[in-house]
Structure formats: C-alpha cells, structure tokens
Design a protein that fits this description.
Layout (H helix, E strand, L loop, with lengths): L3 H10 L1 H23 L6 H20 L2 H5 L3 H27 L2 E3 H27 L6 H20 L1 H7 E3 L5 H25 L7 H44 L10 E8 L7 E7 L4 E9 L3 H17 L7 H12 L8 E9 L4 E7 L4 E5 L4 E5 L2 E2 L13 E4 L5 E5 L1 H4 L10 H11 L5 H15 L10 E8 L1
Parallel strand pairs: 7-10
Antiparallel strand pairs: 1-2, 3-13, 4-5, 5-6, 6-7, 7-11, 8-9, 8-12, 12-13
C-alpha cells in the first residue's frame, strides 16, 4: 500500500494536471447548466456539446492523475479504467458534434458521419474492454479518425472559398475568433494524435493549452449565437405582440345594439395571432348580419388572410340581407388572394321585425338553433364548398322563423375538435348537451361557460390546438 508521503509527493508532481482537469470539468458543467437554462434559445446545442466536450476532457485529465485515483475507495478505483476507456473513445464524438452545430451544408454532413463513425468505434471498443479486458484495442482507429477529421476540417476554417463552396460557418461575424482557436488546437491535436498513433506516447505537454484556446473560441462563438438568437426571438415576440394588438383591432369592439336581440362573443386565439374572424353587419336596429370565418392553418399567414376578410366583408356589406349572395361575393373578392389556403365561413341574417332568419355557410361547422317553444335543437348545415377550393358551388340558404327565447350558436371548429386524454373529440353532441343544460343562462354567461367546458375537456398539460370563436345570439 502506498504511504501518505508518497501520495503527497505524487500530488505535488501532478498538481498542474489536477488543476487543469478540475478547471475543464467545472467549465464544462457550468456550460451544460447554461445550455439547460437556455434550452429554448437558438443555437443552444452548440453550447451543450462544447460543455460536454470540456467536461469529458476534464474527467480524462483527472482519470490520468494517479495520485488522485489512489485516494479513491477501492470500488471507485476499479471503475476508473472503464471511465478512462469510455471517455477516450467518446471524446471525438463530442468534438465532432460541437463543430457540427456551427456549420451547414456538406461540412455539416461530413461531421455527422464523423460523429457516427466515432460512436460505432466507441461502442465496439468499450464493448471489447468490458468483455475481454482489452482497454485500447481500437484506439488506433480512434486516433486515425481524429487525424482524418482534423486534416479535413482545418482547410474549411482557413480557406473561406472552401466554406462558400461546400458549406457555411454559422458564427456570425466572429469567424476570426473561431479561426484562431481552431488553428491552434488543430495543429496541436494533429501533432499529438500523430505521435500517439505511431509511437503510443502519452505526452500531454501542450494538450491543455491547445484545448483551452479552442474552448475559449468555441464558447465565445456559441454563447454569442445564443445571445443573438435570444435578441431575434425577443424582436419576433415584440412584433407578434404588435400584430396581436392590430388583429384585435380589426375585430368588433362592441356588439350591435339591436331590438329584441342579445349578442355575446368569445374569441380565444391559439397563438399570438389567429386565423379566426368574426364581424357584425348591422343594417338598422331590427336587422343585422353575423359573419364567422376560419382560415386554414395558424399563425401569421392565417392572420393576414383574416385581415383580408375584414376588408372583403366591408366591401360586400351591400348584400348583407342575402347570405348566399354575400358568401358568393366574398368568395369572388378573396379569389386569387389566398395563396393555397382555404377559408370556411358561416353567415346568419336576422330580422327581428319580420321574425325571420336566413343562414348559409361555406364548409363551416353547423349552426346550432335552440327552439325555446318546444325545447328542440336544430343543426343547420346549408353548406357550400370552402372558399379557395378550385371548384365552386353555390351556398344553399336555410330560412327559419324565430321566437322569443330562441338561441343561435355560431362557432369555429376549435370548439368541437379538441380531444381529451383518450383522443375523443369534444364534438357537436356535447355542444347540444350544453345548450340544453344552460338554456336559461344569458348569452354572455353561456359563451364563457362553453369556453370553460372546452378548456376543461383537454388535459391540463395539452396546449390549445386551434383558434376558438363563439357567437351566441339570443332572441328576447
């Protein structure tokens, strides 16, 4: 058993190795922590793999420190050779993946193959060590792979024309920083791997210096990419917030004041901006039209088309009393502007003076019509084709008589299509049930109750899957 003075002498001889190993390990762990904290930022994978590379390099240096290993309990000392072999084989995998995150094109493809090849060598090399005790049986292949990667990668960093022809360095305006670090490291590592490949030498004189220079350059570039990505993300979020305000500005701010009607609207976008739209087209205190539309897709493209529908609805308001004609003209105005997207629309016209209502739709969920007199419920379709499809079909019109206590419900498919944990959709039948159970609730309270039921139907961990629009119209 080695004496305490001998351990102290060994520690004194290996103090620089202990310091460098500990330093690289700490830097790697801190970098990994940053990557986890900023995991949603752009470019964070580069930070993650740089941290991983630094951490395993530090562990390797500590594994090589025999004085430190002798201070471990016996069971830990038995684990050190397995740790040493695993880290030795896997270092090139982490290195290739770190560089891969800073490149694009054929250079990225090459580094992907490099990482996969290194992983295969590592699996077989570690496996042979565990099964047969041959710790470095495939180490020559590992060194050869490292030499080949360095010879191929260095020209792409040194010669800009090669980068332009075969790939791209995603380092912003910091190519010089990466160039300096990579050049120092590549020459040092190339020398070290050539020496170990031919002479099996364990000399590590300049390894720490070369790796530290590379780590600083890679870390600087990777962190700058994350910071730049966060700035871009903040800018996008600010722009989306403005877009959200503008979109809400195109929606009606109040409901029209009509005799014998009470109207409530609920609007719940899935994201910052939505593809749902609704509009009121009042003619006078007795008559008004109610338009609901749903653009296919989500986000900014759908929101832009929803804004176009606002302008189109104003331009066709002269046909407000004729649902089929209004939808036909709406289709005509939007034709050629949808860029491959589709719009479903439903339009209801109510005349409280004549007690008549007319309804027509284009590929939209049915209108729910509750009859207070006999407690029955009608699902009115009167559907034509979606706006934007290559072929057109007239939208049929359904006319009904209205009486005090009747209720109309217009909605988009974001109400009926959400699924629960077992994959069952909310469905029109639950809408009918809610209309039956809450027939005495005022329009405003019912719209909020319906929205709450749709939210509760989905698992709490599931985000909203579609935009939701609800219009409730009560006949007094």
């Amino acid at each position: 058993m080695i004496s305490e003075p001998e351990v102290q002498r060994l520690l004194a001889d290996q103090v620089s190795q202990l310091m460098s190993g500990t330093g690289f390990l700490i830097v790697g762990l801190v970098t990994l922590a940053v990557a986890v904290i900023r995991r949603r930022s752009g470019g964070v994978l580069a930070v993650f793999w740089v941290g991983t590379w630094s951490a395993i390099y530090g562990l390797q240096r500590l594994n090589d420190c025999s004085a430190l290993v002798r201070l471990f309990p016996l069971w830990m000392q038995k684990c050190v050779p397995y740790s040493h072999a695993s880290i030795t084989y896997l270092t090139i995998v982490a290195a290739a993946l770190a560089f891969r995150e800073l490149t694009r094109g054929k250079v990225r493809q090459f580094l992907t193959v490099e990482a996969l090849t290194g992983l295969i060598i590592a699996i077989f090399g570690i496996g042979r060590f565990i099964l047969g005790g041959e710790e470095y049986s495939l180490l020559r292949y590992n060194h050869f792979l490292a030499i080949f990667a360095l010879i191929v990668t260095l020209p792409f960093v040194l010669v800009p024309k090669l980068v332009q022809q075969f790939g791209q360095l995603e380092v912003g305006g910091h190519r010089e920083v990466l160039l300096a670090g990579t050049t120092v490291f590549c020459f040092e590592a190339l020398y070290g791997n050539v020496v170990r490949f031919f002479w099996r030498s364990d000399t590590r004189v300049w390894d720490d210096v070369g790796f530290a220079v590379l780590l600083l350059s890679l870390g600087y570039v990777a962190i700058h990419r994350v910071y730049s990505g966060e700035l871009r993300l903040t800018s996008i979020e600010n722009e989306l917030a403005i877009a959200r305000q503008l979109q809400f500005a195109i929606l009606p701010t109040t409901t029209p004041k009509l005799r014998n009607l009470r109207i409530a609207a609920a609007y719940e976008p899935m994201s910052a901006v939505a593809g749902d739209f609704y509009e009121f087209l009042p003619l006078d205190e007795y008559r008004s039209g109610f338009l609901v539309a749903d653009v296919s897709g989500h986000g900014v493209p759908a929101a832009l088309i929803a804004s176009m529908i606002k302008l189109a609805a104003k331009s066709v308001a002269g046909s407000a009393s004729d649902p089929a004609e209004l939808l036909r003209r709406l289709r005509e105005v939007l034709s050629g502007q949808l860029q491959g997207q589709f719009v479903s629309a439903a339009y209801l016209w109510i005349d409280t003076e004549t007690r008549k209502a007319r309804y027509s739709a284009a590929g939209h969920p049915p209108l729910m019509f509750w009859h207070a007199a006999d407690g029955s419920l009608d699902r009115i379709t009167s559907n034509g084709t979606l706006i934007g499809v290559p072929f057109e079909a007239d939208c049929p019109v359904c006319e009904v008589s209205v009486s005090p206590g009747d209720r109309f419900l217009l909605y988009t498919d974001g109400v009926s299509e959400p699924e629960n944990g077992t994959g069952e959709a909310f469905g029109d039948r639950r809408l009918e049930q809610l209309l039956h159970e809450n027939r005495s609730l005022p329009a405003g309270e019912f719209s909020l109750q319906l929205l709450a039921n749709v939210r509760a139907w989905q698992p709490a961990s599931t985000p909203q899957q579609d935009d939701i629009t609800i219009l409730v119209i009560d006949v007094l």
